[in-house]
Structure formats: C-alpha cells, structure tokens
Amino acid sequence: MPLALHHIVIDARDLPALARFWAGVLGWRILSERDREVVIGPDPTAPVGICFMPVTDRKVTKNRLHLDLTSAAEDREDEIERILALGARRVDVGQSGDESWTVLADPEGNEFCVVRPKDTLIG
Fold first, then answer.
1. Quick one: CATH architecture of 1-56?
2. Disulfide engineering: 41 pairs with which of 49, 50, 86, 111, CB 3.0-4.6 Å?
C-alpha cells in the first residue's frame, strides 16, 4: 500500500491558541487536545489534519514549507479580512506586488498564502 499524507505538523509555542486560530481560519474543529499535541481537522474521519507540536524557541526565518489557501474569487478579499481579524498579519517575503496571492502570517509568524482559485490560474 502506498503512503498517504496523515497530518501536516506545525511547531508551536502556544499549541491551543495556534490550533484555535487555524481551526477558525479553515472552519475546522479541534479533534484531540493533549499536553504535547493538538490535532485539528474537518471531522474525525478526514484523511488529513493539522497537528500542533510544542517548541520553546521562536520562529526566526521564513518558512521552507507553507500552506496555500483559496476561496471563491468573489470571496477572496473578505476571507483575507476575516483571517486578519482572527489574528493573522500581512507579511513581506519579497513579493513585487503583482502576485496573484497575498502573503499572511499566523500569530506565531508562520507564513501562508491566500491564492486565487485554481480555475483562474489554469488555461
């Protein structure tokens, strides 16, 4: 049987707070909460979730891996504003200003992008 993606793991200083942020962003829920692990997902049977694991150090450099999020084209700006209200912030990672994505960071500084829907990028 081939391997399948199980969790995306994000190191966090404040596991419950970061898990709540991402659950709010994605409309997911907390599935499991332990001292050293918090898991969120759309539901307990979902094939992939996000797992938050503890670290003591602060994030200091740009992520080497990040998430790209999308929504309907007409909802994109409202979704960005909603995510900012949840605690994200806009960040500059060297973009020119002509990109089809917006770079944000979660409350602990992990960058992610809100991109145009795939159907607007293909063709």
1. Roll (3.10)
2. 49
Q: Which helix H or strand E contains 115, and what residues bound it?
A: strand 111-115
Predicted TM-score of the model (pTM): 0.91
Same fold flag, 1-56 and 64-123? yes
CB 18 within 8 A of CB 33: no
- Tens place of pLDDT per residue across the chain (123 aa): 899 999 999 999 999 999 999 999 999 999 999 999 999 999 999 999 999 999 999 999 999 999 999 999 899 999 999 999 999 999 999 889 888 899 999 999 999 999 988 776 665
Which residues neighbour 119 within 8 Å (Cβ) at sequence distance 6 or greater?
A: none
Give the span between the Cα atoms of 21 and 31, in whole angstroms.
Answer: 14
What ranges do the domains of the chain cover?
A: 1-56, 64-123
Residue 88 burial class via C-beta count within 10 angstroms: exposed 0-12, middle 13-18, buried 19 and up: buried
CATH number of the structural domain 64-123: 3.10.180.10
